[in-house]
């Protein structure tokens, strides 16, 4: 027991006693049940608890003994008493809410996965005037992002290549610096393939120079496709530790260079994705750089006419790019065609051009139609980015999440999943919020309230298909650094495979906007049942050192 003193108007002190809560009644009950009436849990008791209550059926006696050794008090020779057991439940390394290992089938084609994708990965801030740097690229790779986007432009002398957001006030960074940093950090978080998408504004000579740079920097890491036209993408497993290039194949450098410039202006303004390409493309590659073309594994393109025709085009697999607005518009009329397209091909969705502050859109716009590359501005923060981070906490945070089978399969009459259709409830997620801890360690005494301890409450939300969206919250616990809520919520789910559980702690403030106290977003399909320690993150998605919630999950 401790106390906190708050000075009010420099005249007198308010003293608040701080008491850390003990195990909730549900935890005490589970301890008694699995200890068989004894005062401590043995290794066998703990193993039975892990299997039956927590659903950890793969745990072994070795795992149980390791937990015993690291969770009990130093002076205790065997078993866990109630407080040791409670401490173990709050240890997120031992008792995390989701699986920590790669466990999806990684041998399917790349088109069968959602892929952690960045947009304008080199920007440090807004889209108009921030610096270009390799630093945000490094940060993205350290978070597990698997698709890095680079915009390539000639320098002022047109003899070298810069990475810059064209026709803005952003300051450039050299391509060679970006490539070297990508090589160094490509596989620090995930061993699965890294894809570099290039927006190419180069002459054939500079395309050849870019190819030479990539070849020299990446060496054997660089994957070379066996053929110019793939009929099926290779798998993440077969591409482990390799770097892939995705861009438009180089064509004749049109004497109408203005056309290429206008083309990219359209993309920046979100017009390109819905407008037909009025210029016919010549088939000759006499002026193109063959060494550059040879590097391209994932051929990219944009709609050149009617979007439905583009979606139905057969032949070699490829990547198509649509803005968030263009996708929403196309989905109104051609939703089924989009899903069918993404079963074999790759669809990249990018933010609309008016997001000058590097904000993001709701990623489910793309995921519900099977879009693999939902490209995000990783340098910002906000709820949309939390959703993105939540989705890619799945599958061991490797940056590849296997799409649900219903987005890959066709029915007997070629029918596919329709995100707009309301389906029957498949399962109900039960969530219980017991308590929280750690704020007194990670925040100063007056970070939330100047004159008293914080008044915390928890928001618990489901983000997914429209029918599954739900928002609930606990009561406010006043003047307490260690709040105990003990409140339960039910969430009926029609498409649990695409649902995310968003958890956010706020501090109730009667005079102004409620203060932020931590958040996390978890893929519902990965949630483990039973009591779970749920670590919270800051607004940018970095894990807070000590703040966590004790929660309970169950599916019915």
From TrEMBL:
Task: Name the catalysed reactions.
Answer: a 1,2-diacyl-sn-glycero-3-phospho-(1D-myo-inositol-4,5-bisphosphate) + H2O = 1D-myo-inositol 1,4,5-trisphosphate + a 1,2-diacyl-sn-glycerol + H(+)
Top-rank taxon: Eukaryota
Entry's Gene Ontology BP terms: intracellular signal transduction; lipid catabolic process; response to stress
Assigned GO CC terms = plasma membrane
Q: Quote the InterPro entries the UniProt record gives.
A: C2_dom, C2_domain_sf, EF-hand-dom_pair, PI-PLC_fam, PLC-like_Pdiesterase_TIM-brl, PLipase_C_PInositol-sp_X_dom, PLipase_C_Pinositol-sp_Y
Locate the PI-PLC Y-box domain: which residues?
321-407
Q: Which keywords are on file for this protein?
A: Cell membrane, Hydrolase, Lipid degradation, Lipid metabolism, Membrane, Transducer
Assigned EC number = 3.1.4.11
- Broad EC category: hydrolase
A single GO molecular-function term is:
phosphatidylinositol-4,5-bisphosphate phospholipase C activity
Q: What SMART domains does the record point to?
A: C2 (SM00239), PLCXc (SM00148), PLCYc (SM00149)
Q: Where do the C2 domain residues begin and end? A: 409-538
What are the subcellular locations of this protein? Answer: Cell membrane
Q: Does the keyword Cell membrane apply?
A: yes
Here the segments flagged for biased composition (Basic and acidic residues) are 254-269
Q: Which residues form a coiled coil?
A: none
Classify the main location.
Answer: membrane
Residue ranges, annotated region (Disordered)? 254-291
Q: How does this chain sit within the bilayer? A: Peripheral membrane protein
Cofactor names:
Ca(2+)
Keyword Membrane among UniProt keywords: yes
Question: This chain belongs to which protein, by name?
Answer: Phosphoinositide phospholipase C
Q: What is the lineage of its organism?
A: Eukaryota, Viridiplantae, Streptophyta, Embryophyta, Tracheophyta
Q: Which gene encodes it?
A: LOC100786997
């Amino acid at each position: 027991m401790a106390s906190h003193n708050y000075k009010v108007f420099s005249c007198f002190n308010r003293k608040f006693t701080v008491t850390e809560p003990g195990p909730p009644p549900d935890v005490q009950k589970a301890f008694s049940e699995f200890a068989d009436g004894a005062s401590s849990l043995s290794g066998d008791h703990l193993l039975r608890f892990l299997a039956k209550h927590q659903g950890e059926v793969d745990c072994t006696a070795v795992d149980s003994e390791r937990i015993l050794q690291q969770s009990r008090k130093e002076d205790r020779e065997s078993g866990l008493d109630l407080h040791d057991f409670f401490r173990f439940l709050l240890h997120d390394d031992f008792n995390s809410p989701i699986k920590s290992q790669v466990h999806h089938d990684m041998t399917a084609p790349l088109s069968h996965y959602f892929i952690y994708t960045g947009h304008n990965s080199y920007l440090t801030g807004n889209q108009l005037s921030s610096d270009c740097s390799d630093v945000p690229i490094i940060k993205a790779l350290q978070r597990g992002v698997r698709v890095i986007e680079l915009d390539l432009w000639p320098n002022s002398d047109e003899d070298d290549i810069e990475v810059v957001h064209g026709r803005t006030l952003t300051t450039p960074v050299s391509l060679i610096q970006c490539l070297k940093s990508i090589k160094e950090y490509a596989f620090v978080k995930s061993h699965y393939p890294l894809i570099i998408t290039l927006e190419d504004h180069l002459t054939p000579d500079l395309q050849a120079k870019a190819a030479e740079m990539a070849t020299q920097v990446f060496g054997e890491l660089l994957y070379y496709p066996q053929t110019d036209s793939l009929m099926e993408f290779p798998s993440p497993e077969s591409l482990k530790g390799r770097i892939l290039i995705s861009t438009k194949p180089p064509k004749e450098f049109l004497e109408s260079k203005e056309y290429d410039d206008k083309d990219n202006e359209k993309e920046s303004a979100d017009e390109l994705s819905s407008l037909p390409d009025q210029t016919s493309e010549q088939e000759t590659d006499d002026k193109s750089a063959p060494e550059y073309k040879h590097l391209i594994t994932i051929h990219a393109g944009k709609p050149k006419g009617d979007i439905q025709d583009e979606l139905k085009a057969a032949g070699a697999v490829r990547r198509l790019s649509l803005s968030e607005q263009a996708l929403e518009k196309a989905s109104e009329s051609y939703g089924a065609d989009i899903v069918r397209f993404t079963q074999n091909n790759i669809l990249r969705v990018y933010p609309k051009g008016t997001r000058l502050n590097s904000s993001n859109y709701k990623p489910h716009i793309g995921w519900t139609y099977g879009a693999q590359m939902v490209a995000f501005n990783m340098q910002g923060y906000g709820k949309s980015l939390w959703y993105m981070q939540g989705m890619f906490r799945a599958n061991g945070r490797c940056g590849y999440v296997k799409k649900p089978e219903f987005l890959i399969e066709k029915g007997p009459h070629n029918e596919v999943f329709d995100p707009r259709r309301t389906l029957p409830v498949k399962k109900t997620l039960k969530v219980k919020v017991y308590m929280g801890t750690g704020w007194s360690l990670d925040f100063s005494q007056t970070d939330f309230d100047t004159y008293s301890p914080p008044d915390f409450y928890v928001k618990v939300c489901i983000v997914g298909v429209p029918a599954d969206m739900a928002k609930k919250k606990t009561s406010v616990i006043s003047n307490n650094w260690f709040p105990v809520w003990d409140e339960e919520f039910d969430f009926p789910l029609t498409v649990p495979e695409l649902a995310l559980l968003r958890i956010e702690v706020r501090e109730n403030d009667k005079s102004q906007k409620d203060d932020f106290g931590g958040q996390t977003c978890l893929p519902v399909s990965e949630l483990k049942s039973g009591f779970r320690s749920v670590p919270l993150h800051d607004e940018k998605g970095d894990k807070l050192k000590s703040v966590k919630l004790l929660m309970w999950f169950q599916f019915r």
